[in-house]
Design a protein that fits this description.
Length: about 250
């Protein structure tokens, strides 16, 4: 439950929300959807049953986020480290984007949701990319919620790719090394067109970032809950939003 939330936030950070913004809905919410395997184990089910159940929750939270006016929802679906899992589990996970989109894409189009992908395309199976690319294509004109799936994403991989691109551009004379500042670095990351997350939620009691958006989460509010992702509901999501709003109000007051 969210009473068990823990967070850290330093006073006087540069982008503290002003008081009049304190009741606002976070523009960008990022979620580490953890606890699917544990949920299945507790029920004596195979891990993949937890992933399947977790997929149903994605749907509920996407709808809720869109309804309350969140602009960007980033979901950590598969990390660069997840390839180390048993092959059958990886193969199952790589079918989930298709399974999800086969059923939900028409509704996403209807709900004005715009699907995006964040992560290295290399190594993703062709069938997975085909499904995701179709969704991106069919929703590219949509103006509602940006649903940003992190697939084969790792923050260090992202930073490595950015540094290599920056070095290449310096070498080619496109930019000078003196001009490299925060905004230049941000413009080489996979999130270059997105605002930084205002709120990070991680389910299932782990209090780590696990290589997720290390640069982008520098000033975000963190909400951790013991609830396992398959048990996470709209109610829990709204509790996290309220917690964000309360914190924003407190920091706005000082
Ligand atoms: C995955 C379900 C949610 C819990 C976390 C792990 C398992 C939805 C997608 C997805 C990805 C891209 C896309 C549409 C849907 C997904 C993976 C795992 C790999 F365009 N859920 N979900 N992808 N899980």
């Amino acid at each position: 439950m969210f009473e068990k939330f823990t967070s850290w936030k330093k006073d006087k950070v540069p982008n503290v929300p002003k008081e009049n913004e304190s009741m606002s809905i976070p523009h960008h919410v990022a979620i580490i959807m953890d606890g699917n395997g544990r949920w299945a184990k507790q029920k004596g089910l195979p891990r993949v049953a937890g992933h399947r159940e977790g997929m149903k929750v994605v749907n509920k939270i996407v709808k809720k986020a869109n309804d309350i006016g969140v602009k960007v929802l980033t979901l950590y679906a598969f990390s660069t480290e997840n390839w180390k899992r048993p092959k059958p589990e990886v193969e199952f996970l790589m079918k989930l984007p298709e399974l999800y989109l086969d059923k939900e894409l028409p509704k996403l189009v209807e709900q004005n949701v715009k699907v995006q992908l964040m992560g290295r395309r290399e190594n993703l199976p062709e069938h997975t990319l085909r499904a995701v690319d179709t969704a991106i294509e069919q929703t590219k004109q949509n103006t509602g919620l940006i649903l940003n799936f992190a697939l084969n994403y790792g923050s260090r991989a992202e930073i490595i790719d950015a540094v290599q691109s920056i070095a290449k551009d310096v070498e080619a004379g496109v930019i000078s090394h003196e001009s490299i500042d925060e905004s230049v670095i941000a413009s080489y990351l996979m999130t270059k067109e997105l605002p930084d997350p205002d709120l990070l939620i991680r389910t299932s009691g782990e209090m780590r970032l696990s290589n997720f958006m290390l640069w982008q989460l520098a000033y975000s509010e963190f909400c951790f809950t013991d609830v396992l992702w398959p048990d996470f509901s709209e109610k829990h999501f709204m509790e996290a939003i309220h917690m964000y709003q309360q914190r924003a109000r407190r920091y706005g007051g000082v």
